[in-house]
Amino acid sequence: MNLRIEEGIALVSEVIGTLEDAGLSNQPKVVFGTSFIHLESVASMVEDFDHIQASAQDCSAHSSGAFTAEVSAEQIESVGAKYVIIGHSERRSYHKEGAELLKTKISQALANGLKVIFCFGEELQDRYDKKHFSIVEDQLKGSLAELNSDDWNNIVLAYEPVWAIGTGETATSEQAQEMHEFIRKCVSELASNERAENVSILYGGSCKPSNAVELFSCPDIDGGLIGGASLNASDFISLIKIGSDELY
Ligand code: PGA
User: Fold this and answer.
1) Taking CB atoms and a 6 Å cutoff, what residues make up the pocket around ligand 1?
2) Could you tell me the pTM of the whole model?
3) Contact 206, 226 (CB under 8 A)
4) For residue 57, how far is its CA from the centre of ligand 1 (angstroms)?
5) Which of 51, 82, 18, 89 lies closest to 247, judged by CA?
6) Each residue of 59-107: pLDDT tens digit?
7) Options 88, 97, 132, 180, the catalytic residue
8) Of 33, 149, 150, 237, which sees the most CB atoms within 10 A?
C-alpha cells in the first residue's frame, strides 16, 4: 500500500526505460505487483513487452456479486494484468487467510487465465522450534494439492520466511537454498519430478542489491520477490541486473 498513482507510474516508467536502454527488457522476467489503484495504468504501460508484466497483490475468492470492496480475478484480468499474488504473509496474518481460502482464490485466478505467485513461509518461532520444513510442506499441500498438470504451468512459488519480510533480516543463502531444495522435493511429490525441476521458486524477504548476488546464485533460487527495495528505482534496477547475470 505504497505510493500515489503518479508516483507509481513514475517509478515503473523509470524502471522500464532503464531496462530498455540496457537491453534488458527481454530477460529476466519482471513482474510489477502493484496495488489495485495502479494496476490498470501499469498493465497498459507493459502491454508491448513479453517479459515485463503486471500483477495484482490479491484477488477475491468469489467470482462476482455483492462483495463490497473485493476485486475479482476476472476484473484483474480485464485490465490486462497477467498475474496475481496469493497468500502473501500480510494477507495470511492480518486477514487470517488460511489454506482453504487460498485454494479458492487460486482456483478463481486460474479459471480467469491469471498466473499465480503463491507465497508461503514460516514464522520465526517455527524456525526456533525446528518446524519450518513441516510448516512449509503443510502450506504447499494445503493449497496446491489439487492442481492438475496444466494448472502447474501457471504457478510460481515464492518462499518468504515471515521473519525476513520488511525486517532487514534476510535468510542466509544456505538457509534459503536448503528450503528451496526442500520445496522442489515437495513439488515432485505433489506433481511430478519434471514439474519440480521447471517450477520457478522465488525468494522473498529483505532481498536487496547487497545480498542478491549470493541468493540468486543458489541453484534452487530462480528469482526474487522484492518488497521494500522495489520502491527505489535504482535498487530495483540493480536487482534486475543481478538477476540477469546470476539467473541466465
Ligand atoms: P521485503 O518485502 O523485500 O521488503 O522484505 C517482501 C514482501 O513484501 O513480500
Assistant:
1) 160, 165-166, 204-207, 225-229
2) 0.97
3) no
4) 12
5) 51
6) 999 999 999 999 999 999 999 999 999 999 999 999 999 999 999 999 9
7) 88
8) 33
